[in-house]
Each structure stands twice: as C-alpha cells, then as structure tokens.
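Query form — protein Ubiquitin carboxyl-terminal hydrolase 25

QUESTION: What is the three-dimensional structure of this chain?
INPUT:
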Amino acid sequence: NHFSVSLFRQHQQTLLNQLREVTGTTDIQLLQQALQVSNGDVAEAVAFLTEKNSKVPQQDETTYYQTSQVASDRYISVGSQADTNVIDLTGDDKDDLQRAIALSLEESSRAFRETGITDEEQAISRVLEASIAENKASLKRTHTEVWSDSPNPHDRKRIDSCPVGLKNVGNTCWFSAVIQSLFNLLEFQRLVLNYSPPARVLDLPRNQKEHRNLPFMQELRNLFSLMVGSKRKYVDPSRAVEILKDAFKSSESQQQDVSEFTHKLLDWLEDAFQMKAEEDSVGEKPKNPMVELFYGRFLAVGVLEGKKFENTEMFGQYPLQVNGFKDLHECLEAAMVEGEIESLHSAENSARSGQEHWFTELPPVLTFELSRFEFNQALGRPEKIHNKLEFPSMLYMDRYMDRNREITRIKREEIRRLKEHLTVLQQRLERYLSYGSGPKRFPLADVLQYAMEFASSKPVCTSPVEDIDTSAPPGGTTGQQLPPPSSGPASAPAAAPPAAQQQRVPVHKPFTQSRLPPDLPMHPAPRHITEEELRVLEGCLHRWRSEVENDTRDLQGSITRIHRTIELMYSDKSMMQVPYRLHAVLVHEGQANAGHYWAYIYDPHQRCWMKYNDISVTKSSWEELVRDSFGGYRNASAYCLMYINDKKPFLIEEEFDKETGQILSGMDKLPPDLKQYVKEDNEQFDKEIEEWDAMQARKAQQEKLALAAAAASADPEYLEQPSPTGDFKHLQEDTERAISRAAAEQEDRSPEVLLNAAIKLEYARLLRFAQEDTPPELDYRLHHVIVYFIQNEAPKKILERTLLTQFADRNLAFDERCKSIMQVARAKLDLIKPEEVNMDEYEMWHQDYRNFRETTVLMVTGLELFQKSNYVEALMYLIYSYQYNRELLLKGLYRGHDEELLGYHRRECLLKLNEQAAAMFESGEEPEVSTGLGIMNELVVPCIPLLLAQEAEKDLLAVEDMRNRWCSYLGQEMEANLQEKLTDFLPKLLDCSTEIKSFHDPPKLPSYSTLELCERFGRIMAAVGRAPGEGR
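ANSWER: The structure tokens for Ubiquitin carboxyl-terminal hydrolase 25 are given below.
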C-alpha cells in the first residue's frame, strides 16, 4: 500500500544518509548502487564503497583495541524496554548504522599497514574475532603492566570522607571514568546498592542473560559499597571488569569500544531491573528505573518525497557531531534538523525530503556523546577531531522541546533571517576594511587619510632622481671606477681622492650605507599643487573619510546588535524552563587509536569540580575542566557530557533516615549484606595496617638497639679510623696536626689543656671552611661533618660531642702524647650526661649527614654515567639522588645539593632514553623494538609521575615532548605487530596520574673513601658545572 511504500522510501533515504556520513561519499548514484549490490546491508555497502577507492590487498590479521574511542550514530540502544519503533544499534538489525561505524573503526587498528581495504576483511565477524583476541590478551597482562600497590598500607588509606578511587587493572581507565560518573549520581547509587535479585532466579538462572547480568549486578553492588564505606584510598574493580569483558566474547556482542561500554552497562542494568520490576508489579505495567532515569523520547517529523510522516522514538545516549561547530547548541541545532525541511512548514506538495526532531520527554540524566572521530577515506581509518567545542555548565533544552515547536520554528526563522542580514553587513564592512582591487587591501579610512597626508606634504620642484649623482655610490664612498685623469696641475688637488679611499675597495651595503640627503622630504609629495586645489581636495578627503568612518561604525554597531539579538533569542523566561546542569565530563587524551580517560564530576555539596583519574581523586576547577575538555589544547577533549535535570534534586540529594531525619552517610547507606561485606574488607585492611605497624616497630626497635650499641662501642663511620692507612687517614692527620699545633702554642702541656686547645684550633679551621665561598667543584661539607653542621646551624652541644669523638679515636695512640689526649677525650665523653646532649638529636644530625653523603655518591655516580652516555644505568642514580636531595632540602638550604642541576640531568636522561627507545621502535626489527618498549615500560613510564608531581614547567614540557614523539607514530604506516605493541603501550605513557605505581629499588652504592669521594665530586662538577648552560 501507499503507506508501506512511503516507509520503504524513508528507510532507504535513512540508509543513504548513513552511508554518506560513514564513508564521506557524496555521489548519490554510487551510494544507491552500493545499497543495491549489498541488498540493503550497510556493512556490505560500506565495504563496497571503500573497495572502490582502494585496490591494495590487506594482510589477514585484524585487531581492534578496547582503548579506541568511537563515534556513534545518532540513536542509541534502548534495550528490552524499547518500542517497536525504537532505533536499536546494538541489536541484530543489519540496517543499524552502528554496524557500519564499527566496521569503519576496524580500520583504525590497521591504518599503519595499508591504505586499501578489501570487502572480506571488513566483515563484522572479523571485528568480533579481533575484539575477543584483544580482550583475551588484556586479561593476561602481566602484573608489571598495571598498578602496583605501595607496600605501606598507610599510603593506601582513605583520608576522612574523600572520594574513593578505582585501581587501573590494565587499560581500564575508561571503566573508572564511566563508573565514577554514574556512582556520583546518588539516585543511581541508591538503585544499585538497594537492588535485590528476583526470588525466582536465586537458585537457578533460567537463561544466559540472567546468568550473566545478575552476577555483574552483585559485583557492581559490592564495588559501590566499597566506594561508599571503604577505609581504602582506592579499591579494585577487577571482578566487575572481568564479567563485562567476558561479554565481549559472546556472539551477541557487536561493539566493545569505550563509548559502547556505557551502552552495554546500561543494557545489563536495564535487564536486571526489568526482571525485578516484573516480579514486583502484579497486574500492572512494570516500571524500570533505569529506563526512567536514562531514556527519553523524541518525535521525528519529516517529509519523504513529498509525503509527511511522524514517528515517536526512544533514545538513550544522544550522539552529536563535533566537526564544523563551535558550541553545544550548534551541535544540537544541526542534530535536530536533517535534509531540506522547507516543505515541512508549507502546504505545497514538495518532492524534497527531510526531518526535524523534537524532544517529547527528556530523561532526568541527559547524556551526549561527542563524536570526535571522522573516517578518513584516503587513509582508510578514523581520525580524532581536536577542534574546540564549548559547552555550558547550565543547558536550557526548551528550544528543542516539542511543546515549543511553533515558537522555536519562529525563532529559528528569525535567526536565519538575522544571519542572512548579518552576512550582508559583514560583506559590506569587509569592503570598507579591505579596500582595493589588488592583492593587498587596506582600510578605506586609512587610504583616504594617506591621500590627505600626501596632498598636504610640502611640494618639491625636482624629480626624485635628478639630484642624485649616479657616478658615485650611495653613502658618499668612491665607486669601482677611478676618477678621470686631470688635465693640468691646477686640477690635480681637487680630483685626487683621500689616500684612504684610494686604497680601499668599496663594498656596497644598501641597508647600512645609504644616507638621506638633508633636503630630501621624509615622504613623497606632490610636484605642483595650488592652494585652491589643496583646499578643495582636503575638504573632499576630510568629508569622505568622515563618511567612511561613520558608515564603518554604523555597520559594526549593527553587526554587534544582531549578534546580541541572536544570543538573547532564547533568553526569555518562557524558554528557560527546562534547565539541565552539567554533572560529569568524560575526557579522552590521545589519538583515535589509543589514549587515556578520566572524568570531571561536580560535587554539589562542596560546590566544586573533582577530577577522577583512576586511583587519584583531587579537587579541580571549572578552568581546568575547560582547558582539558573543550579541545584545541594538546590532545585532550571531552567525548561524553552528562547533564542532569536541575529541577529534580533527588538525583544528587543524600538520603535521610526516616526515623531520625538525619542524613545517611557512609556505612549507614548500605543494606545489611553490603554492610557486612564492607566491614569484612575494612577489618582485613585494618589487620594489614596493624601488621605493617608491628613490623615497622620491630624494625625501629632493632635499629635503635643497633644504633645504641654502635654509639657505645664505636664512632660514626666517617669519624672512625681503623688504621693509619685506611680510608679516613686524612681525618687522623688533621687531628694529629691540631694536637701538634696546640703543643707548640701551649706552655702547659697537660693532656686536658692540649685537648681543649687542639679542639679550638680544629674548630677554627673547619669554621673557615664553612664560611669560605668555594667553586662548584669544591664542597667542604664532604671533607668534614663539622662543616656540614656549621652551615646548617647544628646546636653547639652536637658540635662539641662530635669533635670530642674525633679526638677520642683509639688510632691516635701511636705516641704517649696522643694516647693521653685520646684517653682524656674518651673520659670527657663518658662524663657527658644524657640531659646535656640529646642522643636522639645527636643521632638524627649524624643520620642526616650520612644521607647527604649517600645522596652525593648517587649523584656523582649518576652524573659520571650520564657523561659516558650510559643513560640506562645513570637513570636510577639520578632519580634517587634527586628524590633524596629534595628530602634533604626540605630541612634547609644547605642540607643538599643544587636541585636545578639534578633536575636538569634527571630530565635530560629521560629524554635521551626516550629518544633511544623511539629509535629502536622505528627500526621495526626485533629484538630492538622489544628492547625499546622495555626501556619505556620499565624505566621511562614509571618516572613520569615524578616529573608531573611537582608541576615544574620544564618537566611538564619534557613529558609533553616524550608523549608527542610516540603519538606522532599514530599517523604513520607500520606493520601489524608494531601497531599492536604501540596501541598497548600508549595508554600507559598518556596516563596523567601522579601516583607512583611501581618502581625499582635504589641502586647499590659503591664504597668511596672521603678523599676519593671529594676527588670524584670535584671532577664531575668541573665537567657539568652547577647550572647547565643549555637545556629546557
């Protein structure tokens, strides 16, 4: 019948639009041929069209990565609650555009290997096989590739009621971003926490959906309960993630990219709640809370070949195209109108086709997917769109509602008319601002001004070339030719040039030697002009310039008023009745093939934005959100916006206790089974903390006993002198030299008098060292602990005891005088009372000095290796020396070494390693590729959080350089195995977290004597200098 034919034509037109959007082909005949050849199968039609543009055969292997972000079609699956007229893009209907998009995105994993695409390789089944293989591989990733927990549980302890993060268990930052956004919708959180499975399926699930969805719901409840009441800083979502990943292996799964994860999640939740709703509602139509929360309806009003139609359709996540639009309203306006719609409003029976969409019912949670990918037909792969797209924190949806259809059409028509008028005005203004017929244009007002200035200039009576002597070069110097010979003695003096000019060969320097004659005017001027001519001309030019300026101002004012009118078109109260507040922004950083995901979520109670980046949850700001989400800045941009109805506060309001009226928080939110689950997990974590504390207490006690024993039986290692020829011979020589000088200066040579005199002399010598201004290669702190103590203002009692310890060394007993002084010094040490010198403080100062020497050894070794270009071995020495040195400097300026010097070499070492690894990867040969990626995974990537943590500009630039180097490979052709390795590696490199995930142990320290350490320090500092001459 006629109605069926109309629907068929409408359906065919929809398929043509879908093919045009996916493939970029605009040839209508070619699109119709593709549909005819494929019998209406969009996937086969895309294959036919892409094959038309390429004859290069593909390799067999296909891979598809879970880290890919994808552009979806306009309508999203509604699931089991969908009407018959719902457009479902996750079902089996081959007419669905999502199948074609999934097909085109298959190319993203092969784009580096080829530019051609064959029909067979674009089959949807190949995408599924590849996605299963990728998920299987991701589940088998080694422990070193994911988060590594700190051994200290205090580092993993939740602070007060801070939000709980989610551990990245292997390329699962996408999971964290989506789950956190949903969890912070408190109504959604309550629905999940209070969900109980239907009684009829508790014992034996009757179908595959129940067998899969109910366990997932339980794991999601467990995960949410831990996010509510855990004492941990972050929790592990592995069990829920694995169930979700397993579903991608099933034959009924059509997509597994990041945007489809949310669809899949909501589908499962909808199915689970539908089972419960059907059980609870007896004789009534069951209400599914997931549908009521996330799904809305729109009315499609259209004309197909002159025949009008209206269809009501459901939608979930609403996709919007980004390319070509500057803000969210422009995207929505374009999405609401398709084709040529003039015939919708006219009574004429036009053959044109088009349709408008009007929302009849908006969901409480309104989600927009921003399609930041387009299919590059020439390269045969999707590319990310980095264009800037602005979106508001408060979005008014009134203009898109069906109930406002007529007034919106009037306003749209008015805006269209204003924009046409605006275009005319802008074109007229452009003629004033860019006047002229040649390639160079100037503002007309300026042209008239220049003409007036020319006419008003002082007239000149000669040609501009008549007063120039062409026989001499510019600037008054002689030319290449000699002056003409003189005819007699009288002319000789006048014709002879200066001797200096005769001997010099002149060189013409047009920009440095030309000099203006004093009477030459600064600007060109008329040759002849009468006063009458000048008066008339000036009058005309003044009047014309004034007219032009007035016209320009009028045009600019009209343009500004039109812009303002358009901006305020929907600002009246009647069009601000459907407010939606921005709840969450999901951000992707990277390219089409790989990247990292995080979320910004608004906290209405603290009234601030929070950044959820895996295990890291930090306070943020609207400014940071704008920088990372609008796009156009680096490679980060929003790919999903979640708005909530601002007139439905229950979405984000806390629950109240029905009896007490108090807000339920923490464990009080949870049902009994989840309370017990969280309680057991918290008890396990408490036990872990207790065991750690007990172990640390035992270690501290053992160290204290060891230190006490060492203090009783021996001196600090840098004051010990085991033999005259040992490592510390210089210290013994200094001590003996002080005793000899004291004996020479003192008449009373009793041991106690000599000891006091020798200590004063030694202290005076070391004080001079401490106060001396030395070059970078000479650091007296390494020569003696007292110099370090003086520079850092150690207490006097600490200095005295340390000097006594130096003179109490048993190795001084080689003659009677030294032996007697040593005995007096030891006796004085024994007489010092505990209240006079705090031994804990004494040991702390000496421990700081030991740390300083250890840091120096690390620094010297690292710099020596760096100078030898041994960057792999140098890195850990430089990393640890920087970290230890930073801890020292927190206590005082002179506690450590030059932080800038260490920071520079740490940064440069990472950049050098990045270059080496990139060069190995570029070789494309094994084992170089694996070695290069090993360097990145094991050395460079774990160090990146250290550079990000302090937010130093030079370090941030270095990280950006390293990331850009690897991201640049995404646009190059490479073998399939290299593409797979790159796609697996990039998310780790692009991870923005500042959490230290896993790290190497400190390198073993070589044993240096003081003299050797000072010599090596001097040599390396002389080589590198305190501050680098060049660098970032």
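ADDITIONAL NOTE: The longest strand covers residues 579-590.
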